[in-house]
């Protein structure tokens, strides 16, 4: 049996360092908003032959250029008028040959602000709802830890599991201009769902062992350690299966979804870690 609770301060310190580093990265670099949130133009073009990216960048000095899977190019710009668009198409055709427009999307600042506000509300609603649900689910467990503390600790682990991928995106945005878009929001919500499920499995085993072993009469630290070890194989095996699938998708899947998959991949690893090495140790500290 692994002495997880005995070494809880090691695991909590590691989590604290990662969370602090993520907060510093977000504070220092910020998150680079995509056109979904900041507004702008998304322009997808198909060339007869794949153009040199450096040469293409000369046509759009301030644009973000992303190669697609089928030789297409996605160009993101802050603004592009109809006149500028027609002129760019003429110049690109003269330089690279036939150019076909696959998609053109123009999102205004007002729409972007509305999406950003809705995303924030979605996060807040999910966090509050999950915390209330966990507190309600464990309402019959009052000794030696009050039921509402299970909900608060679940909320803390969710912040932990979302801050670290967000910190990663802050660094990626600073170094490689990776943007935060609606795909990132969806990925974070997926991570939150997976994380809370994993945490509840561990908490449920603690609740069951408390019932079997006599509640307050049991050694709580020992009981929690036993419960975590009982669910350890299940948590690791489930996460490992998902991680292997995500790795295959990351390396073999469409390039346009790589950062979406990366977010879920990192969130899955962090969420599994927090459900085993963060949630239960916090429970023993806050009883």
Give an overview in words:
The protein is α+β, with helices and mostly antiparallel strands and 287 residues long. The chain has two domains: 2-33 and 108-284, Up-down Bundle (Multidrug efflux transporter AcrB transmembrane fold), CATH 1.20.1640; 39-106, Alpha-Beta Plaits (2-Layer Sandwich). The protein contains ten helices and four strands; from the N terminus they run ααβαββαβαααααα. It has helices spanning 8-29, 35-38, 53-59, 82-96, 109-137, 147-176, 182-213, 220-252, 258-277, 279-285, and strands at 40-47, 64-67, 72-77, 99-107. It has a four-stranded antiparallel beta sheet with strand order 2-3-1-4. α1 (8-29) packs across α6. It is elongated, with a radius of gyration of 24 Å. 32% of the residues are buried.
């Amino acid at each position: 049996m692994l002495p997880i609770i005995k070494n809880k301060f090691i695991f909590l310190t590691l989590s604290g360092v990662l969370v602090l580093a993520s907060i510093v990265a977000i504070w220092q670099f910020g998150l680079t908003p995509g056109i979904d949130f900041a507004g702008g133009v998304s322009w997808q073009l198909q060339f007869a032959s794949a153009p040199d990216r450096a040469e293409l960048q000369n046509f759009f000095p301030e644009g973000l250029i992303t190669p697609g899977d089928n030789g297409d190019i996605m160009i993101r710009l802050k603004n592009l008028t109809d006149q500028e668009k027609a002129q760019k198409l003429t110049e690109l055709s003269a330089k690279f040959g036939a150019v076909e427009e696959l998609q053109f999307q123009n999102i205004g600042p007002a729409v972007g602000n509305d999406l950003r506000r809705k995303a924030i509300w979605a996060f807040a609603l999910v966090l509050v709802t999950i915390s209330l649900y966990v507190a309600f689910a464990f309402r019959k467990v009052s000794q030696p830890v009050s039921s509402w503390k299970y909900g608060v600790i679940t909320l803390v682990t969710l912040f932990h599991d979302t801050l670290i991928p967000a910190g990663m995106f802050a660094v990626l945005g600073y170094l490689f201009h990776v943007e935060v878009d609606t795909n990132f929001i969806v990925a974070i919500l997926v991570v939150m769902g997976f994380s809370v499920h994993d945490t509840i499995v561990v908490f449920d085993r603690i609740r069951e062992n408390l019932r079997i072993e006599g509640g307050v009469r049991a050694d709580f630290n020992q009981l929690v350690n036993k419960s975590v070890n009982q669910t350890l194989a299940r948590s690791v095996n489930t996460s490992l299966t998902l991680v292997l699938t995500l790795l295959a998708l990351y390396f073999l899947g469409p390039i346009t979804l790589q950062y979406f998959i990366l977010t879920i991949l990192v969130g899955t690893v962090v969420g599994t870690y927090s459900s085993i090495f963060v949630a239960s140790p916090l429970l023993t500290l806050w009883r």
